[in-house]
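Worked example 2:
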Amino acid sequence: QVQLVESGGGLVQAGGSLRLSCVASGRTFGTYTRGWFRQAPGKEREFVAAIRWSGDSTYYANSVKGRFTISREYAKNTVYLQMNSLKPEDTDIYYCAAVRNPLATASMTSSASYDYWGQGTQVTVSS
């Protein structure tokens, strides 16, 4: 089993920045892809960003491209989501996710492709 724990959420004014962290523990070998999703109450979980653990390929939703950056730190088994120029519409619960098997690029944006999920961290952007 793989356990994922997010941190770094909070309240920030529009235009501000936050950095989310996701630490993996347990049987973390073979977690080929790590991703971030977000979800508002009553809405479907939405893809934000993903990174292949074995390389430097990164993927972003159009809504966050140019503002958010996903990165990973091997030694700490941690993935980060640096969020800049935040907007009120970025307000959501943010979840990190991991999957053991390599994913086709087209599958990386689907929440159904991921095996493991964190508990979520709230991000609130005030106008």
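The CA atoms of residues 96 and 123 lie 13 Å apart. The two ends are 40 Å apart (CA to CA).
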